[in-house]
Amino acid sequence: MSLSTAQLLRSLTGLTRRLPVQRAQIHSKPPREELGTMDVAVGLTSCFLCILLPSGWVLSHLESYKNRE
Question: DSSP 3-state assignment of 24?
Fold first, then answer.
């Protein structure tokens, strides 16, 4: 590295040390209502249908996607 590159890198790292760091203030409270069995079942089913089903479709039809017709 040349001298000017080293000086540039040193000046950039020195600048980042002086910048204030903002921290997220995340506070959690207990839920107002407990989740029931039906709520959990609906949530898991919707996750399965929205994420796993399309990816499973693509993986099961991967050979047909590889062939160009």
Answer: coil
User: Within 13 Å of residue 69, how many CA atoms lie on the same side as its CB?
Assistant: 4
Contact 34, 27 (CB under 8 A): no
Instruction: Give the helix/strand (H/E) hosting 4.
Output: helix 3-18
User: Tokens in use for 40?
Assistant: 């959990």
How many CA atoms within 13 Å lie on the side-chain side of 15? Answer: 6
Distance of CA 38 to the CA centre of its chain: 27
Give the dihedral of Cα atoms 36, 42, 44, 50; nearest 10 deg: -160
pTM for this prediction: 0.45
Q: Which tops the pLDDT comparison, 44 or 7?
A: 44
Which tokens go with 31? 């839920």
